[in-house]
Model the fold of this input.
Amino acid sequence: MRNLGILIIIVTLMWSCNSTDKKSNTSSENLKDKKEQITKQLDSLTAELKLVDEQLSTQTENQDYQIVTVIKATSKNFKHFIEVYGSVKAEKNVEIRPEMSGIITHIFVKEGQHVSKGQVLIQLDASTVNTSIDELKTRLELATTAFERQERLWKQQIGSEMQFLQAKNQKESLEKSIKSLQVQAQKMRITAPFDGVIDYIFPKIGELASSQYPIIRLVNLNSLYLEADVTESHLVDVKKGTPVQIIFSSINKEMTSKITTVGNFINPENRSFKVRIDLPSNEKALKPNLFANININNFESDGIVLPLQVIQKDKEGKNYVYVAVTENNKTTVIKKIVTVRSTYNNEVLIGDELQENELVIDKGSRTVNEGNLISIKSE
Done:
């Protein structure tokens, strides 16, 4: 086609020259100049025609190439996490209940107040018990006098041994009864079992307090921890000291810690075991029963990490990726079998089958085959 075009141009130019010879009597020098001009024009047109042919050839080839995008294989630190949920617990978080029933006569504290161990919180009506104690003390005075008299007589060998023993037993029985009532009277005074903060007071003055119902919730926030259930399939991966990431989404707070203890009991109902994570004592924003997302870091390694979408599986069940290799100004698709070591959050840690900076085909990897010529699109 190109040669035919050149031939047409030459014939046209020669016909033009012959026409000129017939019309006028041109000198030999003029003809030489004319020939030189025609030769230059012919060389220029030939060069331009060659350039057009090359461009057409390139466009035709590129139209047959698959356009893809690539990513560079990069080595970095890869972490895998087990995602579980937990809640904040307080080591000292109790609902205090009275041991004895009685009408509440005094409430000595308020909600939010800091109290010390042993501090009196609530007083129940102990008037009946105190009256009984007073009566027994009066009877004890008489019994003590009778016992002392019988003791003196017994030392003098006067009177019977039975009389002495009866007087002694009467005195000791009254003493034990008084001690028992004094213990009951003490139980009518509700005291703090440990240092903490009064979180909630359930009853009011004048209401009946009973051991069946709590009267005060006392909390100590200096010993908080997280408790979570982990499925038994991760029993081998989760150990004491395993790093964790903790996310408290409701208060927009994140922190890192380590597993403190791992439970030794598998719950038969949900096939899980408990883990505990101690929390810093200075985190005042944390409250008992606060919900938390816990990411347990059960695997970590350095290596080539790729997006999950570039990994494919062949008929034999082997994982592979397509790699772009450029030689002699042509880019070809090569298939490489890879080993998947771990997968997390749409990223894959593979074995040592790839080297850093190799070009892994991303977009278009599902439509190419090994050996195809491709064109890489820049993003």
